[in-house]
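Entry type: protein chain
Record version: 2
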Amino acid sequence: GIPNDIFLYEVRQVTTEASKQIPMDLRKYLRVNTDFPDIFPFKQNKTRTINICEHDHDAVRALLVEHGTDAADWIRDYFVNSSSVNLASPESFYGFLDDWKLDPCLVK
């Protein structure tokens, strides 16, 4: 088993309606009644970027999708089934987890 409890969310959840549920789920996980401040998405400064959809990156993108699929399946089939793992807004979490299996350049 997992020696410590884990609170798990998918980072994109903070940009959706699930962001309203996450503080409630976190309070339950921590067993506290204190209200938490609103959660806001982190804004990255992307000064060095590539267009992953360019043909030059097809092999890397295919590998990333393969690893994303393997990771999503393992998280869904094994990791979250532990009684030590607490999901934030499970329906939203699983929806985003399913996206890990998709090639972002083929889904528009």
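Comment: The first strand starts at residue 6 and ends at 8.
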